[in-house]
Design brief:
With 554 residues, the chain is of the alpha/beta class. It contains 26 helices and 13 strands. β10 and β11 form a beta hairpin.
């Protein structure tokens, strides 16, 4: 009979469990975890009295990373290591007694998985720090319900913990985890890992993931809170049985509009709604006729049904700004959303922060669900199979193109944190010096050197079409007049990297470009040890971007 009240592993049992992930590549974040594990916890040191919390959505490698850290231990360290699997039947008293016993037995590294299943965790989590970390035990914890960990760090564990956020998996880390992956794979599967560590199953129901990883995550934590405090608004939505609908609604619309407006207006799929623009260059009369006559309202209703999303007027209760703000804030705290900048150049100049979904596969699968609604449209199904396929693939390809723009913007924004990174959108106005158009990305460094980009999903060079904005003298003149010194004009695409042409335009392979962002990741540099990646010819283009950057107003 076990002397422990919870499920405690060590020795052979723990060793066998750790070996189950030995064949998997490691997250770069493992360096941060190891830094904590082998730190000095003495008084007056940075980690004194602190626990380490792995914080992020499901399927982002938290438990795997803990096991991989154990694989790297010496025998002496491993012999002082224990693992606790928490269940719904456990309580803080049982966990406390087991930690006391492990402390008395000399254990110095304790991993606690599914800590948020303990009902009192949020209210008494400071015990982990004040009783055990302070005595020299390295405690690493994680849990499915990230809201619980977030709340504990705002309260009981405030200033008593360090966080390692796992939700965001940049492209360069994705290709490290899956060496044969491409930019196309990242669009379709990027952001989530399966329980076995391989790519997230593209056939799995992504709505179930959203419901379990986010909506149920929140609901589970809310049900365990005794004092709802400033989370009362979320609790009210939860008690009305509408939290899943509202969260799904936010996730669909947040990429394009402010949260309040997006929730309170009637549902409209942004991906389907622009069909006419995407196929306007097609010569087939049947396809053009369908594009002109398409009933967007019927398609939107079908999409809404597929995604199980209720319109505002279908919710039993109205939504307040406070309720919506709390959902928005939580999704940002989970790293589910992050912002990229859009600059609007028209009669006036403005900068706005626009949210994107950090995990591309969620965005992609939601767009695919929207497209499936085409097959429920009577006019669409009357088209021949090859014409249906043409329209579907045309739309899907363009959606991937828009996603690639978001992916590049987000990855660059995160990596080049000291640079100004934005998309620039030019809009004509009366007596304007330029025509409508955009730079998909603009980067400006400390030297005020500016790099302008066109981003294309295509693998083909279509020079006039792909460079027209980069070479537009009116837009270039505006940049010069407003303090942007253009150093490079770049087309990012899925084709081969080419030499700079006579007009000064460089074609770069987008995968190679995104992979080179790893040189700004301190964890990658820590582990590199002189290993090259075969893309060194492109390093100068990317590394020179950030040199001596200095913030200044536009």
């Amino acid at each position: 009979m076990s002397i422990y009240r919870t499920n405690v592993r060590f020795g052979v049992s723990l060793q066998n469990r750790a070996k189950s992930v030995s064949s998997l590549n490691t997250r770069y974040l493992l360096n941060d975890l190891n830094k904590y594990l082998y730190s000095d916890l003495s008084v007056n040191t940075p980690y004194y009295g602190k626990v380490c919390a792995l914080y992020g959505l499901r399927r982002t490698g938290k438990t795997t990373m803990m096991l991989q850290s154990i694989l790297g231990m010496t025998n002496e360290q491993f012999n002082k290591t224990a693992w606790i699997d928490v269940t719904e039947e456990d309580n803080m008293a049982s966990l406390y007694l087991d930690l006391q016993k492990l402390n008395e037995q000399g254990y110095k590294y304790i991993f606690i998985d599914e800590i948020t299943k303990v009902e009192q965790f949020v209210r008494v989590s400071s015990l982990l720090s004040d009783e055990f970390a302070i005595s020299g035990i390295h405690i690493v914890l994680t849990g499915t319900d990230s809201l619980g960990i977030y709340l504990s760090q705002r309260g009981e564990l405030f200033d008593r913990s360090i966080s390692i956020h796992t939700t965001y998996i940049p492209y360069y880390e994705y290709t490290h985890l899956f060496p044969n992956a491409t930019a196309e794979d990242y669009i379709v599967e990027g952001g989530l890992l399966s329980k076995s560590g391989i790519n997230y199953n593209r056939d799995e129901n992504f709505k179930e993931y959203v419901d379990s990883a986010i909506a149920e995550n929140i609901q589970h934590s809310l049900s365990k809170l005794k004092d709802k405090g400033d989370l009362g608004a979320l609790y009210l939505i939860h008690s009305r049985g509408e939290l899943t609908n509202v969260i799904n609604r936010v996730i669909e619309d947040k990429n394009h509009e402010f949260l309040l407006d997006a929730i309170l207006k009637n549902f409209e799929s942004h991906d389907i709604g622009v069909l006419h623009h995407y196929i306007s260059d097609v010569k087939d009369n049947d396809i053009l006729s369908y594009s002109a006559d398409m009933n967007v309202e019927n398609l939107s209703e079908q999409i809404k049904k597929d995604l199980k999303i209720l319109n505002y007027n279908e919710l039993k209760y109205g939504l307040t700004e406070n309720e919506l703000a709390q959902i928005e804030n939580y999704l940002y705290e989970l790293d589910f959303f992050d912002d990229v900048k859009y600059c609007t150049v028209s009669k006036e100049f403005s900068i706005s922060d626009n949210p994107v979904v950090v995990q591309p596969c969620i965005r992609y699968n939601q767009a695919k669900s929207a497209l499936k609604a085409l097959y429920n449209d009577p006019k669409f199904v009357k088209l021949s199979g090859d014409k249906q396929e043409f329209i579907y693939n045309k739309l899907l390809s363009d959606i991937k193109g828009r996603m690639l723009e978001e992916i590049v913007l987000l990855n660059v924004t995160r990596s080049l944190s000291d640079c100004f990174v934005s998309q620039f959108r030019f809009y004509e106005y009366r007596k304007s010096p330029f025509k409508n158009g955009e730079y998909d990305m603009v980067i400006r460094n400390k030297k005020n050197e500016t790099f302008i980009f066109e981003i294309k999903h295509s693998s083909e060079v279509e020079y006039n079409k792909q460079t027209k904005h980069l070479l537009d003298t009116e837009k270039l003149d505006w940049l010069k007049e407003n303090g942007f010194k253009v150093k490079e004009k770049v087309v990012l695409y899925n084709g081969k990297t080419l030499d700079k042409d006579d007009n000064g335009v460089i074609y770069l392979n987008v995968s190679e470009f995104l992979e080179e962002l790893k040189v700004y990741d301190r964890n990658y540099l820590y582990n590199k040890n002189g290993i090259t990646d075969g893309n060194e010819d492109n390093d100068a283009v990317n590394i020179s971007i950030e040199d001596d950057f200095e913030d200044r107003d536009i």
